[in-house]
Specification:
Chain lengths: ~130, ~700
Amino acid sequence: MLKTSLQKIYSDIDFTFARQPGKTVKDLALSYDDKAVIRSVRNLLLTNHYDRLFNPDIGSNISFILFEPLSGSTETSLEREIRTTINNFEPRVEIESVVVNTDYDRNGYNVTLTFYILNATAATVTTLFLERTK
Amino acid sequence: MASANSLTQFIDLDFDSIKNNLKTFLRGQDTLKDYDYEGSAMSVLLDVLAYNTQYNAYYLNMIANEMFLDSSVQRGSVASQAKLLNYTPSSSIAPQATIILTMSGVTDASLTLPKYTNFLSEPIDGVNYNFINPNAYTVNVVNNTATFENVVLKQGRLSAFNFIVNSTENPKYIFEILDENIDTTTLSVLVQENSTNTTTQIYNKASDFLTIDGDSLVYFLQEGNNNYYEIYFGDGILGKKLKDGNIVKVSYISTEATLSHGANTFYLMDTVGGYSNGLVTPISEATNGVQKESIESIKFQAPKNFAAQNRAVTKNDYMTLIQQNKLGITFDSVSVWGGEENDPPLYGTVFISLKPTGAYDLTTTQKQRLVEEVIKPISVLTVTPQIVDPDYVYVQLTINVYYDPNKTTQTSGQIQEGIKQSVFSFATNTLNTFNSTFNSYTLLTYIQNYNPSIITTDYEMRLQKKFYPNLSVATNYKFLFNTQLQKGVLTSGVGSSPGLTFKDPLNPALEINNIQIEEYPSLTYGVESISIINPGFNYQSTPTITITGDGTGATATATISAGSIRSVTVTNAGNNYTSAIATVTPAEGDLTGQLGALVVNLEGRYGTLRTFYNSNTAVKTILKQNVGTIDYNEGVVTLNSFNPIDIDNPLGNLTISVKPKTTTISSTYNRIITIDPYDSASVVVNVIAQPQ
């Protein structure tokens, strides 16, 4: 029999630990597929090295790069760091493009990340605004 | 969902393994699939779970380790385990020195040197140490001078604390003494009734729980969790109970232990009865200090102490308790045996022989203190402990070493000295204790390993006994070498050194110098073996063998097989045979056995010792034909009525040397085999170059 419902390949809990919406079952809300992958990518980019116990390699160096002067070269560094981190730790993603634009007014960078999730036909686009917080 | 059985491995303590276990568990479900991707929230949660698991597992592991004496590493844990074995780790012990203190210009009739008067030592490694006298001394003043003889000083300072008993704050009456340097052997505990009633009672350390009742004035000592000693008191059933308001007064010597060893010059720092004109003459330097017991030592000693139960019954009990003595004497080796093993047996006596560290013998005082303070209180009532001095057998070696000069850059002199040192380290490592064996293979290995250029080694060995003969007093001496001795063939097997002086027997007014002792194989023989020249035939049962000759006591037995004599065993060698024959008599009722014939082989078991000197014209002259005997079988040398009037040696000791039959020599009981490092002739090395 042909299966009509869309099978969920990836599933992860949500860091907000919210309750599942619209259901009577009292359970944690989960993220699926592209949402789960995007969340994973964001987690990786926002994790510093040495944040994870016993596994200092996981994460990126982005928060340190953000303390460099706002300039084109920092954009390049950010782009390279984002690509390296995703290539190293997120095997589900094939990067299409990483576009980093300096936003001088807001003192940060707009990052537009376009990638393909394996087994998905359409590209996924996610945007991030990176600014230093302290 | 996954079943709990998916998580099967509980043995891992490693973070990654624990995390992998959790992942294995999650593989069995399909609700959450991203646990294996490092960026996922689930992965972060797994990290937290794995870390928590590892943290608890590690913590439990450490707790489990600290629960057992073998694996605990914290001193507090080790001391606590030892407490269960009724073992209190020993504290530092203050070194002790003895002095004479002379106070001049004293106008009183008598003078008292109060307890805890301060003295200062000369600098040891740049530090002057404080010494105090734990006892008071009073002497009469003679010619305005007070002389305090044999004042014992202990290194350290007096420390004193007062604790006020308060059952609310300290319901167990445990008082911690916050000093790591305490010498608990000097601990004094007094209990004052209260701040208004100054009646004070002395409390002693509890030792024998059988004698303690509810009124006994005792305190208990233990090492607490914080590495400090604690004292605590009885509960009214075992030891008198303290009352609220009591004041516990604790005083002791706080010592730097072994650091001040060797201090021998002291200065009086306090006034004595108002006089400060004191002169200190040292008698013995500061020694016998002991460091606080180490964790390793507690782990080693506590179970053995428990096994001995503070009672000396078995051989090992004596050995453990003597090694643990609190007198500050340490031993390289301890040997204990029962008197029933002696020849002749001496029942009811236990013999103890001790080799003190850094000395040959114990002093008489040390022996008395060991017996009275260490052994007697714990030994069985009817058993008399007796300390005997170690009986040293010195090995003298003449070593010939052949080496290839092309294989080494060392000179022959360097090789010679190096081999000498190797031999001394051989002695240090394998000899110098009771129950050791001189093993020629080990000796040769030490020599061979010194330098690869050594081709081969041979050596000659002599055994020596050193003693101090009574001069001019005829005395009998007996030396037990406890190994068969070789009879001298062309040269004497027995020798003596240095030269002796005797009175000339022909003219007692004259003295003859440079007299030596040598052996003279005598005519007193025993039966060594019996050979069969005709086994005979048709013997029904074992025939009797009779040895007849001019000696006495020899006996032998035969064994037969298929009617013929197969072997004859000498059961007693007998004495004084110069000729002997053995006859075979068939057993009673054996009418067929015949023709068995034997021949006796005699052996010289005994030899005689004589004294000789070389006269002015270098003619060897015998001074006295018989000064002693030598028993080659038993290895016994005796000197009878030996009365030299002088010895050519400032120390006054005489060495008797013999050649052993074998080079494997064992020591038992109170015997110690050693190589004397202070005797330049004890190891002679000849180095012979032999290019290959």
